[in-house]
């Protein structure tokens, strides 16, 4: 058994599931390089799968029908025995585990949310939610109180006494999620949990799952055939094809660095604006002016990159505002030694490094400078020029948009001429010509 890592809740190594005759013989053939089609009288559903699921992450397993993803999740749930390999849950290898111990693992560590809800039709919503607690022998008053508490959490306050058929599809799926949460297990397994819902309700449920995850921090293994759903929900994604895991990575990894032609073809139609974040496309901020710098220093910093403006930051790289080369020039000509009087406050030009590209289009259009990207501590970590934003999204109807600054930068010749003049401290301001 592999040494257990406390940050890893589920670990699979060399996992196989073969149905039919001569299963072990089929595994050996597969290990020697045979394909699914080379097996005689056997079907290989999962082939040499290795992956880790970290505590508190949403790990998405994505693939087309027949790729093996649903078989894999049933192995994690203990519904299917592995033909070969190891599968650990919280450091315990459940392969060949005694049935009693396996049932305890499933009861205490794993809960399942099904595609078609799987609610008990003659029980109330509250009773459905409380069912896992009933199986554990929790007294009725306690489990009912817990059920109503979780129904509040998933937005179903007041629906506890209804029957499942009185609820819409989206509401029934919320009940399914609530029932899984009531079990209070470490792991939630979700097998195509939203695929039976219409698109609007499906997106609503995806949003709700992410909101719940912020509060609860569960470890979720989510199965889907929809790559956009995988990209939206997953902290990391395992892409399956013909029983094999062909790539594991973050949504950004899979979108920007596909492992092979199959994955590359898969991601062609992904809505990149909903996946890539500001941090994925930002560039280093150059130049950045310190609030302590004088106007001559600011002009020199803007000269070489031929920029007409730059961000001004304090000692902690918090943005104070922006300064243009025209304003810095006027300060030099007036003999000023600080930038304070000409720093322009900004607001709309700032985005978070975690913001997806879809949410930064409007700020990018309105910003007088490349978008400033800040981190959780409000420090400037990069910038996004509009042309970089468009390029990140690939060719499209806006790809030919003309990118201009509100004022053209001063020529280097003008800057050099002014900087060459002695610093007299004169208050006289002269007209700037081009």
Automatic annotation (TrEMBL):
Signal peptide: none
Annotated SMART domains: AAA
InterPro entries in alphabetical order: AAA+_ATPase (IPR003593), ABC_osmolyte_uptake_ATP-bind (IPR051921), ABC_transporter-like_ATP-bd (IPR003439), ABC_transporter-like_CS (IPR017871), CBS_dom (IPR000644), CBS_dom_sf (IPR046342), Gly-betaine_transp_ATP-bd (IPR005892), P-loop_NTPase (IPR027417)
UniProt keyword annotation of ATP-binding present: yes
Domain annotation ABC transporter: ranges: 10-267
Domain CBS, residue spans: 282-339
GO MF annotation: an example: ATP binding
Keyword ATP-binding found: yes
Pfam family, one: CBS
Keywords assigned: Amino-acid transport, ATP-binding, CBS domain, Nucleotide-binding, Transport
Family from the record: Belongs to the ABC transporter superfamily.
PANTHER family documented for this protein: GLYCINE BETAINE/PROLINE BETAINE TRANSPORT SYSTEM ATP-BINDING PROTEIN PROV, GLYCINE BETAINE_PROLINE BETAINE TRANSPORT SYSTEM ATP-BINDING PROTEIN PROV
Stated name of the protein: Glycine betaine/proline transport system ATP-binding protein
Provenance organism: Microbacterium amylolyticum
């Amino acid at each position: 058994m592999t040494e257990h890592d406390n940050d890893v809740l589920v670990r699979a190594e060399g996992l196989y599931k073969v149905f039919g005759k001569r299963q072990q013989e089929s595994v050996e053939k597969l290990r020697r390089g045979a394909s699914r089609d080379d097996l005689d009288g056997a079907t290989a559903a999962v082939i040499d799968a290795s992956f880790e699921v970290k505590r508190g992450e949403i790990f998405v397993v994505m693939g087309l029908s027949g790729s093996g993803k649903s078989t894999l999740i049933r192995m994690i749930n203990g519904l299917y025995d592995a033909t070969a390999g190891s599968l650990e849950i919280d450091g315990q290898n459940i392969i060949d585990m005694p049935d009693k111990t396996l049932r305890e693992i499933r009861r205490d560590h794993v809960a399942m949310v099904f595609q078609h809800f799987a609610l008990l039709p003659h029980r109330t919503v509250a009773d459905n939610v409380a069912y896992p607690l009933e199986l554990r022998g929790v007294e009725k008053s306690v489990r009912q109180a817990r059920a109503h508490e979780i129904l509040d959490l998933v937005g179903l306050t007041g629906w506890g006494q209804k029957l499942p058929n009185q609820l819409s599809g989206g509401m029934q799926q919320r009940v399914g999620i609530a029932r899984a949460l009531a079990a209070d297990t470490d792991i939630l397994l979700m097998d195509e949990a939203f695929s039976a819902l219409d698109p609007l309700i499906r997106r609503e449920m995806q949003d709700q799952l992410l909101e719940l995850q912020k509060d609860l921090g569960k470890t979720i293994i989510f199965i889907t055939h929809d790559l956009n759903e995988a990209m939206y929900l997953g902290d990391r994604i395992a892409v399956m094809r013909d029983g094999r895991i062909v790539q594991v990575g973050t949504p950004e990894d899979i979108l920007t660095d596909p492992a092979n032609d199959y994955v590359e073809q898969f991601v062609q139609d992904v809505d990149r604006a909903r996946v890539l974040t500001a941090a994925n496309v930002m560039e280093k901020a150059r130049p950045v002016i310190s609030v302590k710098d004088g106007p001559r220093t600011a002009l020199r910093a803007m000269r070489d990159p031929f920029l007409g403006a730059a961000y001004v930051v304090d000692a902690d790289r918090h943005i104070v505002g922006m300064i243009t080369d025209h304003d810095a020039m006027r300060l030099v000509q007036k003999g000023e030694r600080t930038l304070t009087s000409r720093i322009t406050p900004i607001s709309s030009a700032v985005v978070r490094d975690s913001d997806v590209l879809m949410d930064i289009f409007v700020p990018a259009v309105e910003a007088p400078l490349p978008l400033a990207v800040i981190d959780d501590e409000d420090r400037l970590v990069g910038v996004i020029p509009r042309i970089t934003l468009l390029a990140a999204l690939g060719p499209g109807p806006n790809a030919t948009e003309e990118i201009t600054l509100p004022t053209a930068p001063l020529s280097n010749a003008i800057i050099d001429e002014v900087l060459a003049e002695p610093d007299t401290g004169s208050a006289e301001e002269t007209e700037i010509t081009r």
